[in-house]
Structure formats: C-alpha cells, structure tokens
Amino acid sequence: MRLFIEHGYDATTVNQVAKAAGVSPMTVYRHFPTKEDLVLFDQYDPLIAARVAARPTDESLVRRIGMTLVETTAVSSDPARTRRGRVRGRRPRHRRRHPRRNCCTRASG
User: Fold this and answer.
1) How crowded is residue 18: how many other Cβ atoms within 10 Å of its Cβ?
2) Which letter does DSSP use for residue 34 in this model?
3) What's the CATH number for 2-108?
C-alpha cells in the first residue's frame, strides 16, 4: 500500500511491489492474479462473512451487514486496512469492482 500511496496506483508496478516485499514478481502473481487484486483483497472478508452469518436471522440483511461492519471496524485498528481503503477509494474502477468481490455480501445475499 505504501508504494501505491507514495507513487500512485498507475505509476506503481508489480515488479516494484515484489522488490519492496522481498519476493519475485511470480510470487506476487501467485497470490494476487492481477495488480488490482493487491488493493481489492481483504483478509477480513471471511471474518466479516462469518460474523454476518452468525447474527440473528430475524434481523434484516442490511442490519446484519451494517451491525457487523460497525462492530468489526470498532475492533479493528489495522493500519494496512486503512491504507488499502485510501488506495481503493481513489480509483473509480476499484470502487465499482470491490462490491462484487466482497465475500461478505456474496455469502449473505
């Protein structure tokens, strides 16, 4: 995230990300098939999906998702997640694509 914030998403290459992480570009691509996936992947998605599923089923889906996000956000203070959101929010393509990739909404909808 640091490279994307410092240099911009378009100006940052996967090779630069790999070098900064101390791995080969192939290793990056093995875990993140596209450059977009570097900013769209969120390790908390499975946790959020599980918490939405665990909420009372008599709550509306919107309330279950909303309350889960509020509760999870209050507990999480991961700076990488905040940086990812800043990079994601700057790119209209990422804002459009992210909701489809959010397993929380897929798993509960």
Assistant:
1) 16
2) S
3) 1.10.357.10
What is the Cα–Cα distance from 58 to 44, expressed in whole angstroms?
24
Name residues whose C-beta falls within 8 Å of residue 41's C-beta, 6 or more positions apart in sequence.
32
User: What does the angle CA 97 – CA 103 – CA 105 come to, to the nearest 5 degrees?
Assistant: 85
- pTM attached to this predicted model: 0.46
Query: Cβ distance 3 to 16 under 8 Å?
Result: yes
- Please check the confidence at residue 102 and state whether its pLDDT lies above 50: no
Average pLDDT over residues 46-67: 90
How do the domains of the chain map onto residue ranges? 2-108
**How many angstroms separate the Cα of 103 from the Cα of each of 4, 17, 52, 85?**
24, 25, 11, 16
Give the pair of three-digit tokens for residue 81.
């997640």
d(CA 87, CA 2): 9
The amino acid sitting at 59 is: E
For the chain, report the end-to-end CA distance as a whole number of angstroms. Answer: 30
